[in-house]
Predict the structure.
Amino acid sequence: MVAGVVSALELLRIMKENNIDNYYPVEIAVMNNEEGVRFGIPVSNSRAMVGLIEEGELDNIKDKDGISLRKAIIDFGITPNLANAKRTKNSIKAFIELHIEQGPVLEHNNKKIGIVETIVGFDKYSVKFIGQSGHAGTTPMANRKDALVAASEFILAVNNVVKEVGLGTVGTVGELNLTPNASNVIPNYVQLSVDIRSTENDNLQKSYEKLVKEIETIKKQRNVDIEMKRTLRIDPVYMSKEMIDIMECIANKLNLPYMRMNSGAIHDAMVMANIAPAAMIFVPSKGGLSHHPDEWTEYIDLKRGIELMLYTLLELCKRG
């Protein structure tokens, strides 16, 4: 988020200091909560801007401590007003988002700019494994209903399924809770989250169908109950072809080493595409690191991204 905001501010500074005229007003939209970790609802800022959050959700959506989204907003000294936040379709000429790549693709390909074609869609599931607790020493292996063993086999199945589906499909189990979580007791309950991502809805569906089959097999082999529920679905979104072509032309003129690529992370641009043509620019992440203390993007790479964003904006203004 910081790189995008700083880059947008620098772009406006350049325009002001050089008296650059623009036919359309240029605004900076500063958004947070893109990944939705606290409340489980990603890209909530842009969702509010395009009218995809209802008034009741501000009270119904709560974090793990029971704090509602509305209260959290108020606690930050802000009055939640969805009507003020909402923008209507065609009220925005174009939306451009600059973001660090958060991955190693640009660096591995020795490119300095990523022009995003598609932002992945994803399914998020909550999966529960219900077994039976027992003494770790006195319960024979053949008589166990070990929820954690079943969950472990499922985690491996997620890894194998997305590899079978292929075509850039990825799957992650990043959250796991078990009870009673004691060293001398067989776990009787496990809850985990599954994140499946792809640029194609068909691949998401294929992954789901294969996981359902894997669940049936594990249930029989491990004698446990398994419940899988989809908690979130976001469809893949294609960026504006016109804006992609403009950025590609400008990158060539500026001799910027670039490549077309997809985004494996969700971004606000995919939501803003509901009401306006949208585009994304990626700049390299050193070592491909993100969500890590050593996350870093070189200033010179930000400069390249800002140049591409500036000339793209000016070209869009020319076209009226």
Remarks:
- The domain at 123-234 is CATH 3.30.70.360 (Alpha-Beta Plaits).
- The longest helix spans residues 201-222.
- DSSP finds eleven helices and nine strands in the chain.
